[in-house]
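Much of what follows relies on a compact textual record of a protein's fold. Think of the row as the fold of the chain written in a discrete alphabet. An example makes this concrete, so a full record is given next.


***
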Amino acid sequence: MKGKSSIRVFLEKCKVHLRCGVYEEERKLGVEVEINLEVESGKFVDYEKLYRMIIELSEEEFVYLEDFADRLIEKICGQFEPDVINIKIAKRSLPFHNSMESAGVKIKWERAYGKQV
């Protein structure tokens, strides 16, 4: 059979306590976040290692969710050969009065192919 396989490994609704936020109190006390992660690759990606990366990173302190996502992308790229990484991080506990379930960010990273300039 001709063609190339692409496999998507995912973790859904991974709940983590993260010291992350613009407010010092959020970084001190932490917030509950829910992470959805999808890694697309033509090679093997171990979802248990992905989970361990998230847990290890959750011990660090971040100002922005994007900072957490950037570090996670760096770790994934250092361990595997991803073509695409999709991350959704939603804060479940927000530091202001609200009527929403969560707020957060979605980030899509794609490997750049071709010549580097």
Q: What stands out?
A: Strands lie at 7-20, 31-41, 61-62, 84-91, 103-110. Residues 7-110 form a domain with the GTP Cyclohydrolase I, domain 2 fold (CATH 3.30.1130.10). The mean pLDDT is 90.
